[in-house]
Specification:
Rossmann fold, alpha/beta
Length: about 240
């Protein structure tokens, strides 16, 4: 690709120490990710997927190696700088929804947009419009307890996307959902990716999801063992689980 990458990682390694035992979660990962891509990082449990995602999101630091976001080296950033980076540039979607139960769907989304609106000229999206984009235009005033698991996850996606992040990082976003609901969630992620050109990274152990990706990275034992581009991504509804 001719445009510069949003992320560039070089020699990323992560070692966790458990007593006298060392666990190597990442082993010398080199990686470039670009704006507008829908990337699936595929690998079994323990392959290092979540560790890599957390480092890209500024939630964890590598033991060695560097990762840059545009021209900023995250591995040298202060906690304050990382907090600002996460607030202004990164949206997170986790397996569990983390919605505030006392707020309605639109209030959960508006809470986040209110935090980022105006920060360094940042312009958030309209919460109602984003909820409509993910198929919840008729559920704006429902509380989380009044929503299904898939609907709650789509509120979580709307909340992450509404602040107009450069990067959307998704950790097993369909892991707690049934097949049909999971497809709806993946469709919501696809819509957000195409609507805003947000780099979207989804980690999963489910190989079926790879068919909808622009690019598939395969991770095994902390190393990238495959990097393939998909010229014809399928619609999430066509995924065969």
């Amino acid at each position: 690709m001719t445009t510069p990458p949003i992320f560039q990682a070089k020699g990323l390694s992560k070692v966790y120490r458990m007593g006298e035992v060392e666990v190597h979660a990442l082993r010398g990962v080199d990686l470039e990710l670009f704006a507008g891509e829908f990337v699936v990082i595929l690998g079994p449990s323990g392959s290092g997927k979540s560790t890599l995602l957390n480092i890209l999101g500024g939630l964890d630091a590598p033991t060695s190696g560097t990762v840059t976001f545009r021209d900023h080296t995250l591995t040298n950033a202060t906690e304050r700088e990382l907090t600002q980076y996460r607030r202004e540039h990164v949206g997170f979607v986790f397996q569990f929804y983390n919605l505030i139960p006392s707020l309605t769907a639109i209030e959960n989304v508006a809470l986040v947009t209110g935090l980022v609106e105006g920060a360094h000229g940042h312009v958030a999206a309209d919460p109602k419009a984003i909820l409509s984009l993910v198929g919840l235009g008729d559920r704006l005033d429902n509380f989380p307890a009044q929503l299904s698991g898939g609907e709650q996850q789509r509120v979580a996606i709307a909340r992450a996307v509404a602040k107009r992040p450069d990067v959307l990082l998704c950790d097993e976003p369909t892991g707690a959902l049934d097949v049909d609901t999971g497809k709806l969630v993946l469709e919501a992620l696809r819509k957000a990716n195409r609507e805003f050109g947000t780099l979207t990274v989804v980690i999963t152990h489910n190989a079926s999801v790879a068919g909808m990706a622009d690019r598939v990275l395969k991770l095994r034992d902390g190393q990238i063992v495959g990097d393939e581009r998909n010229p014809h991504p399928i619609d999430p509804a066509e995924i065969v689980w």
